[in-house]
User: Fold Homoserine O-acetyltransferase from Gulosibacter faecalis.
Amino acid sequence: MQWSDEDFRAGPPSRRSDSETRPTSRIRPPATGAWREGDHPGNRQFASLGDFTFEQGGEVPLRVAYESWGELNADRSNAVLICHALTGDTHVAGVAGPGQSSAGWWPGMVGPGMPFDTDELFVVAPNMLGGCQGTTGPASISPDGTEWGARFPRTSIRDQVRAQAALADHLGIRTFRAVVGGSMGGMQALEWAIMYPERVGDLVVLCAPPAIDAMNIAQNTLQADAIRLDPAWRDGNYYDAGAGEGPYRGLALARRMAMLNYRSDSELEDRFGRSWQSSVSPAGGHGRYSVESYLDFHGNRFTRRFDANSYITLANAMSSHDVGRGRGGVDAGLAQVRARTLVIGVDSDTLFRLDSQHRIAAGIPNSVTGPEAFTVHSQFGHDGFLLEIPAVGGAIRQFLEGASLAGTSFGDASR
Assistant:
């Protein structure tokens, strides 16, 4: 399969008219995959929270989109906050439908009898500040009547946490029973425990480092540059572009680059090796390796649900992550965490390596697994925290039930 414009001609259902009868593979991508005013809200709820000022300057009218499951009890003591990863959203659990073209991104984790048991817990998941699925971000309309675009203020992880805290205030939640986050969401969870120690009961950090290192910053920069180098980028002013005329090539390339960090080399080798699509060998100059088509598929699909400006904003926010900034260094920052904490890592993770999770566990005073993180054995790399539900869900369930998890630090939480 050749990677061409034809591979990108699939828009989300919310962008298609009822009269559209062409196969989805023939529909050109929209200028942005962001959720926009007038789109179906799906299961989203919205909170307008007034003006918000950023760490590095700038102000926006803040609206936060979120989803929730379960019921908040009378004293509001059963709330759990789930913070999503870089390209995640509010839809942690649930089926696909209008306004939400994909099923929940953490299946088997939230619901009655599940690790986050909604018979007892109230679970809330906001879209992060700078995102593109309902919370104020670059695709939102600014006070001058046009999209913020590349003018959106430079955003930090700490800005995102303050926006989440404003939502908690709006919902009347003073203290969370637990704050949970994976990947970029894990960075936010860590900052929650340091910035608002009195508001965090238990803390779960999955596959996140205490600070972003030079390699991660370099990867984020290259992905952002892939978008900016797209001729259709137009300095971020592409929202009026017609279908197929936005910076989808650059956004898809950024996603393809990122996918190589999310999965392990052993998984790609086992799944694809040197196999190719159809009967035409790449050696003849016209065929395509299966792994190339795999990356094409993910890049293509991503352009239907994300915004190029938002990707750059969030990549920069991720690069800002450093729990030691202004606190005397990483170790001093980690030492400020008071919450009882479960740190989970995946042994094949090459994006945020396991030793960075061990460092968090060793630096936090109340790690339930001692100086080493709970380690999940997985071939799936960084995405293992999303896919290894028996091990990850079992560990979280035991943790929330009060178990120490001592002695179950290598992926055997289901025993």
